[in-house]
Design a protein that fits this description.
Helices cover 15% and strands 32% of the residues. It is α+β, with helices and mostly antiparallel strands. Strands 1, 2, 3, 4, 5, 6 and 7 form a 7-stranded antiparallel sheet that branches.
Length: 121
């Protein structure tokens, strides 16, 4: 029997197991934000997805750490930080359970932080 998977969309939050980590990389099973455009997400033959981890630790004074509050919509159990400087491309097979979606006001701030960290105009 085939596994039924939820379609991957920008602003969704999924569980990803980041082990084994190296150096200052995120480690363990943690919420992860899909930041890739839906045009790429809709390509069945493209099995990769661009993400950034969500961590319980972060610093509000770091412009690439976007503080988010846990909510029913995003499915997070506690407040955290989207770590926009830790952009990664992973295989979709690493997505291990849908959690929720990040609200538009937060996604706007994430988009601004991603543009800043990548030096995009």
């Amino acid at each position: 029997m085939a596994t039924i998977r939820r379609p991957v969309r920008r602003a969704q939050i999924w569980w990803v197991d980041w082990n084994p980590a190296r150096g200052s990389e995120q480690a363990g099973r943690r919420p992860t934000l899909i930041v890739q455009t839906d045009a790429a997400n809709e390509q069945d033959e493209y099995n990769l997805v661009i993400v950034t981890p969500i961590s319980g630790g972060g610093h509000a004074d770091v412009p690439t750490h976007i503080a988010i509050r846990a909510s029913q919509a995003n499915g997070l159990e506690k407040d955290g930080f989207v770590r926009c400087e830790q952009i990664l491309t992973i295989t979709r097979d690493r997505l291990d359970g849908y959690i929720g979606f990040l609200e538009p006001a937060y996604m706007k701030r994430v988009g601004e932080a991603l543009r800043a960290v990548l030096d995009l105009d």
